[in-house]
């Protein structure tokens, strides 16, 4: 095992590591890992819930698709700030207690969103969602090493991140279906209930996770000196911005370009999510062995699928769009676990600090993608959104090809 910038992200505790590493494995096992997967599922579903509900939200609150998309932008921006800030503020506090409190915050936020009388109140609720999401994701992403033996960390990390893909499989489509059946507000009420249940699950299944040392600001900033860390963060920024520039507006795109009906949107998003779940586990295994190769494939496939949507979607209709959405889902399903693996390998002795940077950039990219996609949707229409997303994914492909990989 190497130290410094290179090394591997899938071993046990590193000597001299930052908060989270020095404590070693504290037990909890696979039930605790499963609880963390439920947490990532819940926070990502909470963040992404408006994706399948943009049209009815905009219609009831009398705002454009681009304005409704700000519900993603605001959440992403807050999460981007909350991830590193909360990681610093919680100091040595028990990570179990912190996670439970943050899940409670998400439950309250979703209830506020459910009863929002106007766009301003809805955006306020989404600020709270960003706060809870940024903290949960930053802390949960690096905990596998403390819950299972070193040889099991790659599989445990994939399982934790499977919650991200499962949010697309179950969360977003389920929210879309609930929105069709009982109105978009019912989806937020259901999400509040799920958040409360996950908070209880974390309290019961996680072991105590106090920290021996708190993460310090200078420790986080020191990571940016590593070339492979900088490459990984740039990759996340380009890839996630490109994806969300397109995916935030996937419903209007499918309706306008492929002619999909409202009752078909949930099925198409379900296909995306199922494919993403498969992509998550495939990418997790591949990235543990060769992160650069795995990400070259992911970036290339994602760019191709997004760029082809305006062409094949219009010519082949809903069936053609469904194929492209599924391919897109396979590629994007591997993004979280592969990029996290890259950054953990680039900073093996500072996993929680690296996770904070990862989540900050990831959610900042979500916000930027939603914002840029909104401007493209309002100015260029559905086709412009796809071209923008595809171009940024091509930029990510170039970054992987020429950038510094972990251990190099």
Describe the structure.
This protein is an all-alpha fold and 408 residues long. The protein has one domain: Up-down Bundle (Growth Hormone, Chain: A). The protein contains 17 helices and no strands. The chain has helices at residues 29-48, 54-61, 65-68, 70-89, 95-114, 119-140, 144-147, 153-182, 184-205, 217-223, 227-247, 250-256, 262-289, 291-333, 335-346, 351-379, 382-402. Helix 1 (29-48) runs parallel beside helix 8, helix 5 packs antiparallel against helix 9 and helix 11 packs parallel to helix 16. The chain is globular and about 55 Å long. The chain starts with 28 loop residues before the first helix and ends in a 6-residue tail after the last helix. Residues 1-23 have low confidence and may be disordered. This is MFS transporter.
How are the elements arranged and paired?
Layout: H1 29-48, H2 54-61, H3 65-68, H4 70-89, H5 95-114, H6 119-140, H7 144-147, H8 153-182, H9 184-205, H10 217-223, H11 227-247, H12 250-256, H13 262-289, H14 291-333, H15 335-346, H16 351-379, H17 382-402
What is the structure about, briefly put?
With 408 residues, the chain is mainly α. The chain contains 17 helices and no strands.
Main beta-sheet annotation: none
Classify the fold: give the CATH topology: Growth Hormone, Chain: A
Q: How much of the sequence is in beta strands? A: under 5%
* Domain unit count: 1
Q: How many beta-strand segments?
A: 0
Based on the coordinates given, report the CATH architecture: Up-down Bundle
Low-confidence stretches: 1-23
Which structural category do the helix and sheet elements fall into?
mainly alpha
User: How far apart are the first and last residues' alpha carbons, in Å?
Assistant: 13 Å
String of helices and strands:
HHHHHHHHHHHHHHHHH
Would you state the CATH class? Answer: Mainly Alpha
Give the overall silhouette: globular
Pfam families: MFS_1 (PF07690)
InterPro entries: MFS, MFS_dom, MFS_Efflux_Transporters, MFS_trans_sf
Main location: membrane
Keywords: Cell membrane, Membrane, Transmembrane, Transmembrane helix
